[in-house]
Amino acid sequence: MKLIGIGDNVVDYYQDQGLMYPGGNALNVAVASKRNGASACAYLGIVGDDAAAEHVVKCMVEEGIDMSRIRQAYGPSGEAVVALDEEGDRIFVGTNRGIRVQSLLMLQLTQTDIDYINEYDVVHMSVNSDIEHELFRLAHKPLSFDFSTTKRWDKAYLQRVCPYLTYAFFSGSDMSHGEISVLFKDVHQLGVKVAGVTRGAAPAVFSEDGIIFSQPHTTGNVVDTMGAGDSFIGGFLAHYHEHRDVKAALLQASRSAAVTCGYYGAFGHGKKKQ
Fold first, then answer.
1. Is 85 exposed, middle or buried (0-12, 13-18, 19+ CB in 10 A)?
2. What per-residue confidence (pLDDT) applies to 83?
3. pLDDT at residue 85 above 80?
4. The model scores a pTM over 0.85
């Protein structure tokens, strides 16, 4: 299986450590898929021209992520300021979203980009990718989309995005089982084949064409939960798209997330911020 992530990349700046780590959902999922056995992974998006961009690009090279179609623009890369609580749960305390190049510039795909994307089996994006305007041009591919929390989507947004998707992922620690059931029904009616809700410390709940699966967390030492959900998605896609076995894919996803919780940052690579 080969996967490409399109859209957001950032550095997560840990104030207490003075370190910045590469991140962003689209990039994190690409790295997690590669670490979970995907034969090739790539990232397509916009980076700035600062030290943060230099670090993110360097880490992509080290992780074996193809980035031959990235755009570089004058301006700051995305940065999220992060703190950790006593349990290792990450807390976002600030962002430069209003001034980062990823927000100021819109990613426009060329035919060369489409030809490049067609080399991959799965295309992953998120609510932070700002790529909704291009979904119709990618609908011939299996598309994966992370909707994040209930604060980031509503029924109108689901109706706009889901008809193009094969995979839909949600973060729903605040959702009841009844709300999850309604969500699954809605997105399946819109054309989504596989939908999943990760729920923090509670078991993840997934639906494949209306068949429900539950996956408890794999136990491990929790240092930092940053990127655990993205790692779950990357692990799931790497296995499921190849084998079409939800139970086995969820187990791999859970193990992937547990490993991620054992180190700082979404996939490591901390560097002192100048």
1. exposed
2. 83
3. no
4. yes
